[in-house]
Design brief:
Elements (H helix, E strand, L loop, with lengths): L1 H17 L1
């Protein structure tokens, strides 16, 4: 499931950007 892995990476980048 590469989609789930990409989703996790995307959410992580979003959280890092919010900081």
């Amino acid at each position: 499931m590469p989609v789930q892995e990409q989703n996790c990476d995307r959410e992580r980048k979003l959280k890092e950007n919010e900081e």
